[in-house]
Amino acid sequence: MTTTTPVTFERHPDTYRHWRLTVDGEVAWLEMDVDEQGGLVPGYELKLNSYDLGVDIEFYDATQRLRFEHPQVRAVIVTSAKDKVFCAGANIRMLAASPHEWKVNFCKFTNETRNGIEDATEFSGQTYVAAVNGSCAGGGYEIALACEKILLVDDNSSTVALPEVPLLGVLPGTGGLTRVVDKRRVRRDLADVFATRPDGVKGRTAVDWRLVDELVPRVGFREKVLSRAHDLAAESDRLPAEQGIELAPLEPSITDDGIEYRHVRGAYDRPNSLVTLTVLGPEGEPRLDGWLLRLTRELDDAILRLRTNEPDLGTWVLRTEGDPEAVLAHEEVVLSGKDWLSNEILHYYKRTLKRLDVTSRTLIALIEPGSCFAGSLVELAFAADRQYLLDGPPIDNEHSLERASITLSEANFGVFPMGNGLTRLESRFYGDDDHLTWLARERDRALSAAEAVELGLVTDAPDDLDWEDEIRIALEGRASLSPDALTGMEANHRFVGPETIETKIFGRLTAWQNWIFTRPNASGPEGALRRYGTGQKAVFDRKRV
Amino acid sequence: MTTTTPVTFERHPDTYRHWRLTVDGEVAWLEMDVDEQGGLVPGYELKLNSYDLGVDIEFYDATQRLRFEHPQVRAVIVTSAKDKVFCAGANIRMLAASPHEWKVNFCKFTNETRNGIEDATEFSGQTYVAAVNGSCAGGGYEIALACEKILLVDDNSSTVALPEVPLLGVLPGTGGLTRVVDKRRVRRDLADVFATRPDGVKGRTAVDWRLVDELVPRVGFREKVLSRAHDLAAESDRLPAEQGIELAPLEPSITDDGIEYRHVRGAYDRPNSLVTLTVLGPEGEPRLDGWLLRLTRELDDAILRLRTNEPDLGTWVLRTEGDPEAVLAHEEVVLSGKDWLSNEILHYYKRTLKRLDVTSRTLIALIEPGSCFAGSLVELAFAADRQYLLDGPPIDNEHSLERASITLSEANFGVFPMGNGLTRLESRFYGDDDHLTWLARERDRALSAAEAVELGLVTDAPDDLDWEDEIRIALEGRASLSPDALTGMEANHRFVGPETIETKIFGRLTAWQNWIFTRPNASGPEGALRRYGTGQKAVFDRKRV
Q1: What residue numbers bound the domain in which A112 lies?
Q2: Structure confidence at residue B3 (pLDDT)
Q3: I need a labelling partner for A357 at 20 to 30 A (CA). Which of A40, B12, B356, B480 fits?
Q4: The complex's ipTM?
């Protein structure tokens, strides 16, 4: 099952097919009510609140709108609108029929949404509560795990479960194993029992094992849940807000050759398997809800579309165009803001940069005259696998005095940490505190090619005579390499130093899952994932690897 | 290529085919001189000091004997006896022809040996120096990376390289990517250039990029290297020693049904895909070079044989037999020793437990009357995925008053850390410092079934009526699950909390490598690994996953 229609990622609550978002003062209800016939592509029914990418895209949309359009919300209750079922997890028939790259990309996006929920709880004072009002399995329990609290209905039948290993021969794909032991600190032997038991755990045992926080009787369930949500809302440190801002449609212009937004242009070069993503700097007077927010939304959307719809474009060339001073002026309005909206914009840009960090494409930054790699936008370059700076005039105008530069700002020193908890500069100069101190002194001025080389901010700085050849060779060289080896190599190089739940999910859990997805024991004709629901038992090669 | 002859892991310097070990006072030379015709199995030639499992088994043997038989050694020089080539890495034809599980197991063993070199440097005061006297590629450079210092001959031609990605479409398999950025702190964009450049980096650039520590002219190379080794030996904190102890042959008794050493018995149950490993407690008077050292050597050997030769035995049942008091008395002699040999024995037992932690087999500890799970031996139970304790008399003697127990000792509180730097108890009760404090107060006495349950030390404690059924169901249930899903699940559950270079290598790098090994872009008929050396270019599916 692949989709020939490109997947889009913009949604609106008015037209959700699978969720109901209701805001009531400081508490929002996010109710899952999956339309069985509403699969993103044909070939499966979304029974028992199981989900596919389309369901999760709406989920993501809701979490974003809660942060921007409903700033008064301080607690979000995730529950099901169906009777006796919370969520059965990712749809198995969809997974079984999907090609490998679709499964992997689907898991990545759903993981990012779960991480976003935790981000909202930690940094936005919008605390998520899972109100598990029926059976809750696999990806369903992983949604609950992403919430700060898990309340389970005490009805003597509803369970939480991670049945992927025993029923499907794969791992829970959205952080389940990691969050069980690392976040909820379930003892590893109990985690082992739990993750190999297809029927899961209910009631008191679920509490004792720390799989859920509290049991709530079925009678009065919603009232009790609401009361808990108000308790959490009362503890929230969310900044006060009167009204939100609307996330209006982005309306990019789309052709076979690319995609254009207001501040982001993507130009496809299919013969060379690459796309050039150009970010345009701001114009006009800085305003809080202006350029940076819009740019972030566009970049987010472009990343998601390219990942899903353009798997053959293996290299993303990152460029900028504009005035570095304008970038600094515009970002300053947001960086200096002490209000809820500034906070949301900065965390949203942070999350979007994190998407780049885990994108399985080669990222090459080209820093040329006319570019505006300053402050927030330098993070794009630091997210890249390499940075090339043109040390000379523009290629098409050798008499120009314009030169490329990089300008660091406070934005590069702690505002946008990576998943490993380090800034991109700290990752780049891992353990070299002296150099980081030196760099902090070089903020707020344009660094020349020679300075950027000296400071280790770029991989190379060819002059205008060498530039085109060197870049061409680098890009052609990259396109000739094994895409799989590049994905593994980049995933290892990008995250130096400490690990977090987030990096473990993307680095370790995902890598094991990818391996398992490719194995005949899961995806072969007699594999567990393919045979699930057929009544036939899977046949395994019993060799341990 | 599989071997039908079981692989053995005991070697002796007198009969090495691929290495020369020369000890000269405080410095040892370990010279690689691979016999091209000496492959472990037929079908490839070990050209250019490339290695296979057989070469690495000798390497491991040398590192162990240096620690025990040559305690006066404080620095070890790893170099090549061949002209102009240090080591070309793992043999490609061997890898290309190997089944998946062989490749993965081979990488695991070689990784453990590299980690052991770092362990010798850090904890034994035997500091390894790589004297790179010729071209050094792939696994060759990864041997150098495991050393504390890398000295590269300055001859205008010798390079260090990680050519796996560009030439083979796989990752460096023994920690290369991780050690480059995490240990040597090479900037990630330079690491990216380095790992995609098939011809590597030489001379000044290799020093500037931190890939090597120092250039040494060809003239006087060995003298200069020796001088550096003496400098490092002078800084070593190795405890003084007059003479070593011999690691005599273990001489296990081997049948189709199992393997028996003096203190370790492995009994195979092939129909149920399991092996019962029984560790026997000590007898007689405690002596420093007695039971624990011998047990460790036997356990180490048994783990390696089972992993390599018995991939179908997916569950290892861990048992002990003996007197818990005797275990404590014997371990006390080693734990209280302040000499070099006590130190070596404890670190060796630590490394052997770490082998268990990364073994891709389900580990189930059975704690029965007559067992001796005390102190050091409790670590075997804590290394297991589950622990079952029989709460009642022995199954075959219902009138007996003998009961199973667990006895914690100082051995469980810091002596044998896992790869993540935590003790197994700290991993088990991750973040629960109060409970760890409580446990520390419960040391040095036999804990009953009820106490073990109360303290969370066992998964379950069935009584004698339920025992056989519960264990049978647990083992049969395990055997019915997908071996791949179990491997991934266990690898994720076992390492909670912080990460180290070691856990990154086994958890993240290995998982990505395993995935890449299964992909057609590497191992398919047109894949890069299979086509290497044929003159034909690999054909890639360009989709990024």
Answers
A1: 13-234
A2: 46
A3: A40
A4: 0.95
